[in-house]
Amino acid sequence: MSLLELNNVSSGYGKMIVLEKISMHVDEGEIISLLGPNGSGKTTLLNTIFGLADVFEGEIRFNGVDIRGKSPDKIAALGIGYSPQQQNIFPNFTVEENLLLGAYLRKDKEIKKDMEEIFEIFPEIERRRRNLAKTLSGGERQMLAVARALMLKPKLLLCDEPTAGLAPKAASLLAKKIREIRERGTTIIIVEQNAKIALTISDRTYVLVGGRIVAHDSSANLLTKKDLEQLYFK
Questions:
Q1: Residue 88 has what pLDDT?
Q2: Closest-CA residue to 33 (of 216, 183, 231)
Q3: What is residue 63's DSSP assignment?
Q4: What pLDDT, on a 0 to 100 scale, did the predictor assign at position 193?
Q5: Handedness of CA 163, 201, 42, 29 (dihedral sign)
Q6: Phi and psi (nearest 5°) for 161?
């Protein structure tokens, strides 16, 4: 059984339909990338999974549970973490406080221990743990956003454009961190404009154009296609 399944899902906002008849699956331990031009519905797909968009038809199942219509806090409690592209940190709180806020749904006593393990993945922000988040560089802020989502201990992590606006070196470093997160047992869906990074770190890729899936293949196969961008204009 797949960790996440979408079957013929149409969704959007209010009366506006953005995605039509989306069917996809995510197996445990995978990194899935979502590619497509601006406005193709990639972020809306993440919002749909996380309960931030209106679902008009279809089925969404996570770990065997129907999550269609559930609120984001209920979906997060089931084990889905979300690192959005915008407004993904609390700038006037310290790095540590941001991470503690990421664990707001947890009631266990392992939060501080897990924070130290996350700092092992992101030593760049561990050095700034008592600094306000607004003093971090762009790359450090994106690391903090991902780290904050990880504090929930999610089974599935949704990452929206984590390398957007970063210099190539910082983007490459963050991509390596994402692979390390998967190696530690978290399944990941990543939206990326940088197709090369997305295809290099992911196992499978779905290409969206105009709110529909127009291609699905292993990322290794798509990486060899010189005409990949032509799929965007079908």
A1: 87
A2: 216
A3: T
A4: 85
A5: negative
A6: 50, 55
- Which residue ranges form the domains of the chain, and what is each CATH number? 4-85+152-233 (3.40.50.300)
Q: If we measure between CA atoms, which residue out of 135, 7, 143 comes closest to residue 62?
A: 7
Neighbours of 81 (CB within 10 A): 23
Cα–Cα dist 100/106, whole Å: 10
Q: What is the mean pLDDT of each run of 10 residues along the chain (234 residues)?
A: 94 97 97 94 98 97 96 96 90 97 91 95 95 94 95 96 88 93 96 91 96 95 76 54
The continuous run of DSSP H or E covering 198 comes out as helix 195-201
**Regarding beta strands 80-83 and 65-66, do their DSSP bridges make them parallel or antiparallel, or are they unpaired?**
unpaired
What pLDDT does residue 232 have?
Answer: 57
- The pLDDT value given to residue 224: 85
Q: What is the pLDDT of residue 173?
A: 92
What is the number of other CB atoms lying within 10 angstroms of the CB of residue 176?
11
- Per the structure block, which two tokens stand in for 103? 């664990």
Q: Give the number of residues written for the chain.
A: 234
CA angle 157, 49, 158 (to 5 degrees): 20
Phi, psi of 203 (to 5 degrees): -90, -45
Strand boundaries in 79-171, DSSP class E: 80-83, 156-160
How far is residue 180 CA from its own chain's centroid?
Answer: 14
